[in-house]
Amino acid sequence: MREVALQPFSLDGRLVRVQIGIVTFLTDYGVEPVDLARAVEERGFESLFLTEHTHIPTSRESPWPGGGDLPERYSHTYDPFVAIGAMATVTERIVLGTAVSLINQHHPLNLAKQVASVDRIAKGRFEFGVGPGWNREEMANHGVDPRSRTARMLEMLEALKAVWTMDEAEYHGKFVDFDPIWSWPKPTRVPPILIGGGGPSVLDRVLDHGDGWIPLRVPVDGLVEFGERVKELQRRAADAGRGHIPVTMYGGAKRADALRGYADNGVDRVLFELADHSGPGARDAALAELDELAALGG
Q1: Which of 74, 101, 185, 231 sits at a 20 to 30 Å CA gap from 11?
Q2: How many CB atoms lie within 10 A of CB 219?
Q3: Longest C-alpha distance within the chain, in Å?
Q4: Rounded distance, CA 124 to CA 81, Å?
Q5: Quick one: DSSP state of residue 187?
């Protein structure tokens, strides 16, 4: 089995190193979860990440960040933790993760157990991409005030880490509060926390609460400016006594020449987003697209 871009590959006579993974809205009308996981591993990709939306309110007061009408896939996604648990049982090598989990829409004690269980089933291959979300009506249905979503997310992360690392965990914050508890299983290790987002303060969150950064669909013509942010991130990490902080690009351009631009500007992993295949031919179309994307890695 070859591995896509885990080793330097040649692009226009130049060696490029960037890992290539897949991210998808895994839907009930698309390729089956187990089939997809097997196919991603068979083609040598480094990782497979899933998105999350617990539901989509029929109200469209919150504009979709992508512009226009909200695509159908947003309201048809599998629960990522259930799906990843199944995927873990039929794969051995690939990283499995969320990109991103909307953690404010979970109870922290339930979520701590879900993540720990998935990580153990995957034998330590789980990475936990998180974000505060954009859909205000969706948050409201979970009792989350959009004005405090980022602060709540950071408390959630602190509480989760307490449950994962302490025999008798407790946490007392403004949004999350519980007295000493027992909760097993523990994960194989604290899963790497990848902070999603691209706003002006996202690097602060990555440095304070994360192990990696997931920026979203940075245009190729904006990579030089983006690269300066990556340099700032790594410089600040070094000043804080931390090592290299991995950068995972969500929704990379599906072009071989773009991989060189990502590598030149500090991206460690590119997640190609699968198209929204549906209907009787969804599985075959998804596998054909995976073949095309694997070829980009040389």
Answers
A1: 231
A2: 10
A3: 59
A4: 14
A5: P
